[in-house]
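Troubleshooting: if your tokenizer reports a length mismatch, compare your output against this known-good record of 138 residues.
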Amino acid sequence: MTSEERERGSKWLDRGGLRPTRQRLALAALLVGDGRNRHVTAESLFDASRNAGEQVSLATVYNTLRAFCDAGLIREIVVDGTKSYFDTCTDDHPHFFWEDDQRLTDAPSDELEISRLPQAPKGAEVSSVDVVIRLRKV
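Known-good structure output:
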């Protein structure tokens, strides 16, 4: 990783109020170091960290992703009950889930129109709406 990637990762962690441990810095640099948004799974980030020569366990990756979510730096997108993706773009936007290759990508939000939501039950409020559009090749 370059010093620029590490610097971007460090600033990103600072925005979330997180202490820049060695593991957090390494994972942050992989997630945002190039300045682009991405969707990752814990497993894909673990593989990327190993390929970059970082010594980070899969459990540490899971815990770090949870800390990044709690700090508001990333969003968790649950595709089904067993598969979560983590998105570095935290703005509200829909996603395409490509079933054939298990990939999550951004969908154009200007083409999505939600005209009405059901009323939240008494004592609750809608905190967010996740839209995942499943696709398969024909």
